[in-house]
Amino acid sequence: MPEYQPASRRPIAGTLRSTANGAVRICVKAGIHPDTISYASIAASAAAALCFWQAERLPALLILGVGFCYLRLWFNMLDGMVALASGKASLRGEILNDLPDRVSDVLIFVGVAHSGLCHVVSGYWAALFALLVAYVGMFGQAVGVQREFSGIMAKPWRMVALHAGAWITLGLLWWGGGRIHYGGLTVLDWTHLTIIAGCVQTIWVRLARIMRALRAKNKQEANA
Prior knowledge:
Elements: H1 14-18, H2 21-30, H3 34-53, H4 61-85, H5 91-113, H6 120-142, H7 155-175, E1 181-182, E2 185-186, H8 187-223
Antiparallel strand pairs: 1-2
Helix pairs in contact: 2-4, 3-4, 3-5, 4-5, 4-7, 5-6, 6-8, 7-8
């Protein structure tokens, strides 16, 4: 019986993928299940959220918070690689690969929302749009065409944007006299607005590509 192959996989740069090759071998040899790594990504996100939540009191936690965000992304990559390398990829695994991602998005942005370094509502809107981007991306797979990872504000770029906003905030707190408000909003508020705007573009691009794929599929079926 052939091994299950995921219907779609997020494109990952070879250089980034190579950072996990050693870890994949260790996980396969040690019998570490890919689901365990998926759960670890939630733990990393919870740690990031905790760091962001306490960052007003101890700004240096912004450094750790960003680090945990990237650890979350690395675990998100590692679980799929281990699943394929160990022959444990499955439909159930696809669910457990995606669900922790959605939990992680919410944890991280809610942690930022309650950091005291931005308006609470901006963080919650960023969390909501992060969920919408992922939801729309799965439409294509749900209707029988490709899953979409396109757009400028996919998961990795949301973390990069948050990284920039967090470290600019830290620089201003340490060396900018503590002034983090511009135009009535904080740097992290502007970061969230940038993420939201990018999510709107990403949703539009993904929907457009899915609709084009559906039209092409229908035309192909009609001509068959």
